[in-house]
Amino acid sequence: MLSRNPATLRLFVKSKRVPVGFAEFSRSTLIGPWAYSQSPVRAVLYEQVLDDSQARLVEEARQLSCSAGMDLEVIDLGRMSAIRRAFVSRFVGPHPTVISRDRIPASAISRASQALS
User: What angle do CA 59, 61, 64 make, to 5 degrees?
Assistant: First the structure.
């Protein structure tokens, strides 16, 4: 991410892979040196979806970054391969976790909002 602003708010989320539909198409396979066979193929289509608490957290982080004048970087661990997650954890920390309001004391939230304003 290229930015003139050195302050970046980094948020880690983990989306779930949810099936949303099917796609049907035909596939040609070579039977012999001069013959092809057409066979129908049905593939499942997937979409990456955040649960309600993480979607709310992303929206709150977006509002916070806009009000504080920082860049927002949302990193989706659900879309990463295991090798990429290991690479990210090496530079970010051993276990990047999604922090929600339930896990942060209210006094820390109020101190952070006062420090930003």
Answer: 110
So where are the chain's domains? 8-18+51-116
Distance CA 14, CA 17 (A): 10
Residue entry with tokens 């991410």: 1
DSSP 69: T
Counting Cβ atoms within 10 Å, is residue 2 exposed (0-12), middle (13-18) or buried (19+)? Answer: exposed
Quick: pLDDT tens for 64-85: 888 888 888 888 888 888 888 7
Q: Please state, in angstroms and as integers, the Cα–Cα distance from residue 68 to each residue in 13, 29, 48, 65, following that order.
A: 21, 58, 29, 5
Task: Specify the pTM.
Answer: 0.56
Which residue, chain included where needed, has tokens 């396979």? Answer: 29
Angle, CA 47 vertex, CA 42 and CA 49 arms, to 5°: 155
The SS3 assignment for 105 reads coil
Q: Could you tell me if 64 and 9 are in contact, meaning their C-beta atoms sit under 8 angstroms apart?
A: yes
